[in-house]
Amino acid sequence: MNTKQIQYALALSETLNFSQVAEQLGISQPAFSKQIQNIEKELGVKLFDRNHNPLTLTPAGEYFVRNARELLYKEEQLRKALDQFKTGESGRLTIGVTPFRSLYLMPGLIKKIRSRYPGVCVSLKEVPSHQLRKDVVEGKYDFAIINLPLDTSMLDVIPLEPDTLVLAVHNTLVEKLPIACDGEYPEVDFSEVKKLPFVVLSQNQELRQLFDKLCTRADFHPNIAAEVMGVTSAFTMAQAGVGATLLPLQFVHNQHFDKNLSIYIVKNSIFSRQPVIVTRRGQFRSPYADFAIHLLTAEQN
Question: What angle do CA 84, 88, 91 make, to 5 degrees?
Answer without folding.
Answer: 60
